[in-house]
Amino acid sequence: MDPLPDPAPLASKLRNTLVRYHGIGDGEWRLAKKTKDATVWRKPSEEFSGYLYKAQGVVEDVTNRIVDHIRPGPFRLDWDSLMTSMDIMETFEENCCVMRYTTAGQLWNIIAPREFVDFSYTTGYEDGLLTCGISLEYGEVRPNFVRGFNHPCGWFCVPLKDCPTHSLLTGYIQTELRGMLPQSAVDTAMSSTLANFYSDLKKALKT
Fold this sequence. Notes:
By secondary structure, the protein is an alpha+beta fold. The chain has one domain (7-21, 28-179, 191-205): 2-Layer Sandwich (Alpha-D-Glucose-1,6-Bisphosphate, Chain A, domain 4). Helix content is 26%, strand content 41%. The chain has 4 helices and 12 strands, in the order H-E-E-E-H-H-E-E-E-E-E-E-E-E-E-H. It holds the Pfam family START. Residues 29-207 form the START domain.
């Protein structure tokens, strides 16, 4: 089992990577899915052979409350239909931890349940927040799960300038599900999962 990394340089590198993704020009993205709640684009990932996905939508709530629902903590399991369990394995400081979580099977179980161990970090960004993560090769893989791997991922949440009670939520996700999977099934699942994430989050914030 690999030891846990030093959190400070990892957090700094992770933040810089996400800010770089956030600066990628519109012309490099290809539309993958559009719903009333969110738009999803993708481009080839620099990290692995799959795609980096970008999702964006306006959420009717204040930045802090939205990010509290996304980052590791009690809210996330309540509303995220894809997540089936979550444990905080290590806490470095209030905004920085290592978590292990599991996800449900997808696409009629073509994609079997997955387990991830992620380093998670939340920090300020402009007038809002950035909550980001990356998988670690840490801990024993539990039986009945395939261990997936999240390359640098994150969510930027900033208040709308003309309407601060609403926030623009922009996510960057690149998940390597691993295991024997047709790439087309993975790509279909990712676009739909990201769009559903917004609709589920909006419902949760209204309750």
